[in-house]
Amino acid sequence: MKAMRLHGYFRSTASYRVRIALNLKGLRYDQLSHHLRKGEQRAPAYLALNPQGLVPALELDDGRVLTQSLAICEYLDEIHPEPALLPTDSITRAHIRAFAQLIACDVHPVQNLKILNRLCTLGIGEDRIDGWARTAIEEGLAACDVLIADTAGRYCFGDAVTLADICLVPQLVNARRFGVDLRWPRLLAIEAACLSLPAFADAAPERQEDAE
Predict the structure, then answer these.
(1) Angle 86-4-42 (CA atoms, 0-180°, nearest 5)?
(2) Residue 119: is its pLDDT beyond 80?
């Protein structure tokens, strides 16, 4: 059977999420890199796959294409339910989705390369742009810490990895890139537990072939 093809970039936290999910599920996939700083995601051939010109995009073995990292992760969870990324309990599932969306929908978009480049075109200096990104990340991680204050276990929502952990770990990579003061011991302990798993460690940006 033809392998799935993951279109991404090693530093893309959204691509990182999908790499983790694919690894956790033990699924075979090939990677195709689109260098974001060189604008390769705007090439006509890629826009035919993903008209947003964003990564990741996942080409299934039958040629159909999925976009948006959370949608891809939930698709993978539905067709390969073990290990589950979302629990059966509806309340906990909603809490996990809220945590994941806080990062993927509220924090990540306002500090990704596309937005930062637009700020630059408005004549805003690099220091102020970096400060913008730091503030967005700090506020988001502080909220994440509160959201899991009453949970227990090695990971965000217990002793099993969920979609929340898949979003948290890549965001902490971005936090370090922007010099965020990581003052949340629980989040860092969860990160360490996740990175002890091959599925997370092998998906890390520095492990990718296109890493600079």
Answers:
(1) 100
(2) no
